[in-house]
């Protein structure tokens, strides 16, 4: 597995996308600053995991489909006045890789679960991947972002926005529809994923440091909403 290193600087040859990865919002996270975030991109074969990741990291759309591609990417992203290094694991879905996938899951702090809005079965598979993550990590409150890709293919839609939203709300995941092809919401996915991770870190910090805050005027829910607003 190779590491592809990309940065805002490296992408400056593409003027159109020059500042796209500098997102103005801020996670407002004031705890000890750890700027490396490891994310794992999972989902059924063909849903666009590689296309989403490549569009984010390299600003181009991959037309061909190679189900065996799995790779690790690194990219720097600025969120407000903070700079993060994202390590992104783009996984492949073959069954024989299950043991390896368990290892990936253990090594990651946040997850992006992808389905295609044109494939009902890929939507159903989200539950399977989520269960796998919970089984391997065996803890609550795992930062997971669910995304419905291929939103440009409106005539082939099999899963409605509402269904996606309801499932994500029921399972406590952040949610967005995106298109790797048109680059719609691609930066926002990774921004929100970073925020999910930082929100959970803050939650653990608050819980372990000062339990009183739970009973104070400023309830935990409000506190977390201040850390990063869901888009
Ligand atoms: N129209 C459209 N096609 C997409 C989109 N994302 C991926 N694809 C196509 O779907 C196929 C599978 O994408 P890929 O990223 O390889 O899927 P993966 O197996 O999940 O990594 C490729 O032919 C892509 O060009 C999208 O947002 N819109
Ligand atoms: Mg792939």
- Rg over alpha carbons: 17 Å
Major sheet summary line = 8 strands, mixed
- What percent strand? 15-25%
Please mark out the parts with pLDDT under 50 across 5 or more consecutive residues, or reply none.
Answer: 1-24, 224-231
Number of helical segments with 4 or more residues: 6
Q: How confident overall, as mean pLDDT?
A: 80
Shape summary: globular
Which structural class fits the helix and strand makeup? alpha/beta
Bound small molecules, which ones?
Answer: guanosine-5'-diphosphate, magnesium ion
Helix content: 25-40%
**Strand element count:** 8
Order of helices and strands: EEEHEEHEHEHEHH
Distance between the termini: 33 Å
Structure overview:
The chain is of the alpha/beta class and 231 residues long. The protein is built from 6 helices and 8 strands, in the order βββαββαβαβαβαα. Strands 1, 2, 3, 4, 5, 6, 7 and 8 form an 8-stranded mixed beta sheet that branches. The model is unreliable at 1-24 and 224-231 (pLDDT under 50).
């Amino acid at each position: 597995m190779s590491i592809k290193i990309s940065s805002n600087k490296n992408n400056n040859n593409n003027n159109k996308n020059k500042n796209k990865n500098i997102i103005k919002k801020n996670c407002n996270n004031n705890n000890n600053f750890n700027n490396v975030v490891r994310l794992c991109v999972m989902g059924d074969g063909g849903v666009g995991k590689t296309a989403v990741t490549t569009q984010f990291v390299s600003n181009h759309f991959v037309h061909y489909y190679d189900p065996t591609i799995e790779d690790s990417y690194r990219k720097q992203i600025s969120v407000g006045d903070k700079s993060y290094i994202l390590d992104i694991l783009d996984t492949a879905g073959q069954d024989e890789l299950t043991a390896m996938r368990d290892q990936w899951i253990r090594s990651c702090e946040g997850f992006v679960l992808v389905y295609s809005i044109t494939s009902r079965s890929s939507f159903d598979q989200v539950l399977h991947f989520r269960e796998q993550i919970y089984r391997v990590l065996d803890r609550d409150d795992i930062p997971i972002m669910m995304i419905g890709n291929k939103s440009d293919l409106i005539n082939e839609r099999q899963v409605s926005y509402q269904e996606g939203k309801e499932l994500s709300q029921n399972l406590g995941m952040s949610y967005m529809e995106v298109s790797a092809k048109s680059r719609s919401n691609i930066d926002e996915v990774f921004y929100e994923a970073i925020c999910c991770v930082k929100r959970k870190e803050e939650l653990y910090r608050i819980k372990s440091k000062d339990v009183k805050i739970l009973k104070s005027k400023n309830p935990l829910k409000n506190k977390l909403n201040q850390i990063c607003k869901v888009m």
